[in-house]
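Duplicate of #3305? Posting structure anyway:
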């Protein structure tokens, strides 16, 4: 790729930089050295705030760059990352520069207490510098390692100098131990940005995949409006079928990540028969072939149905509506629409009944279904996209963690 084409490819890309107050500006400034890159600077007081920040600003960026692994992992584990993301690696050049600084301050750099970085990365960096590693203490990052546990780890060992990646740990120990907080090197930021841009470019190419829809509907009213909402064009096909051409990105967004197709219900309000088959391919010919397969399956499902066909013989039922089913049969339809099992839906109904139809927090749902909170959030998000759950507010959890979202189940 030439310099001019690279610039054209990245004109207007916005990177969300997430980290503590004193790091965000410096990391963002390095990012903005790249032609065509602008940043949204988002800082926090504590690492636990990162997922909420990401969720609040997801629609404003094309990618996320975190100033360290901890806010990245917290956001990833909370299922908050809907855009390409990367974090600045603190091993290598960043750690080496910290060792030089500590040595200038008169500290023994062969006896250190280091958090967040993996033991393998620390040992590799020390080996490159020709330094011994026998007297190093490391606390690698894991989801259960909180800043309080990191502080306890450093206090428990000998009074060695401390290297931390966490601003909260630095603040807690600065008056009792010699603490150096790692600050991303310019080189490390550039490496992370390059990785993020490659990932974002791949995502952009994927979003540009051709999506072709074959639509069977008697009354065309509203169909053109639906095509426009998908960023596509509409044309007559043959045999009364309409051809809708768009790309993967708008289709992904309109279907809530390929889970449901709202336009199907709107068209069904004016038609007894609405069948839609979408095909997603790398060429128009491939997408059309897959759309034909999807439409054939939609016909087998019923009078109102939508299917998305992908490569590798993968078919996704976006939504299907059958005449007034009840009981277990209705749960089967819902299960197919939202990608959850019937037993899971039954447990959700039991949870709703036990709560007297009052809103439930994500934590309460997770406990009742014996799953992790992030799994509960994913389930509720699918139900929300299908119109079977609605957010009614947030409930402060009483800790430094993210607020708990309240959901009212309407399935």
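Output from current build:
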């Amino acid at each position: 790729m030439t310099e001019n084409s690279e610039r054209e490819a990245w004109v207007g890309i916005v990177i969300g930089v997430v980290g503590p107050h004193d790091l965000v500006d410096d990391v963002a400034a390095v990012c903005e050295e790249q032609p065509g890159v602008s940043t949204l600077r988002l800082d926090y007081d504590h690492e636990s705030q990162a997922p909420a920040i990401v969720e609040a600003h997801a629609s404003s960026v094309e990618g996320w760059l975190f100033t360290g692994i901890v806010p990245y992992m917290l956001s990833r584990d909370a299922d908050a990352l809907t855009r390409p993301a990367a974090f600045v690696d603190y091993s290598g050049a960043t750690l080496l520069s910290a060792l030089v600084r500590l040595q200038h301050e008169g500290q023994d750099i062969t006896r250190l207490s280091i958090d967040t970085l993996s033991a393998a990365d620390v040992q590799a960096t020390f080996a490159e510098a020709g330094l011994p590693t026998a007297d190093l203490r490391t606390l690698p990052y894991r989801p259960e390692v909180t800043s309080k546990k990191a502080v306890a780890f450093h206090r428990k060992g000998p009074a060695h100098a401390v290297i931390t990646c966490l601003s909260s740990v630095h603040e807690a120990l600065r008056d009792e131990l010699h603490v150096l907080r790692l600050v991303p090197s310019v080189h490390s930021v550039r490496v992370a940005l390059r990785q993020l841009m490659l990932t974002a470019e791949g995502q952009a190419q994927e979003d540009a995949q051709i999506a072709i829809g074959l639509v069977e509907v008697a009354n065309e009213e509203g169909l053109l409006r639906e095509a426009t909402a998908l960023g596509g064009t509409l044309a007559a096909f043959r045999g009364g079928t309409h051809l809708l051409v768009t790309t993967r990105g708008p289709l992904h967004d309109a279907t809530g990540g390929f889970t449901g197709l709202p336009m199907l219900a709107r068209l069904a309000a004016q038609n007894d028969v609405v069948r839609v088959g979408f095909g997603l391919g790398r060429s128009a010919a491939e997408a059309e072939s897959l759309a034909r397969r999807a439409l054939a399956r939609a016909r087998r499902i019923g009078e109102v149905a939508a299917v998305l066909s992908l490569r590798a013989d993968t078919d996704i039922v976006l939504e299907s509506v059958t005449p007034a089913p009840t009981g277990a049969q209705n749960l089967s339809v819902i299960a197919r629409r939202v990608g959850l099992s019937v037993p899971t839906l039954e447990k959700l109904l039991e949870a709703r009944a036990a709560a007297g139809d009052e809103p439930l927090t994500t934590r309460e749902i997770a406990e009742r279904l014996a799953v992790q909170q992030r799994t509960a959030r994913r389930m509720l998000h699918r139900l929300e996209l299908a119109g079977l759950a609605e957010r009614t507010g947030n409930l402060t959890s009483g800790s430094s963690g993210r607020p708990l979202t309240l959901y009212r189940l309407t399935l």
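Confirmed duplicate; merging threads. Residues 1-11, 320-329, 397-401 have pLDDT under 50 and may be disordered. The longest strand covers residues 13-20.
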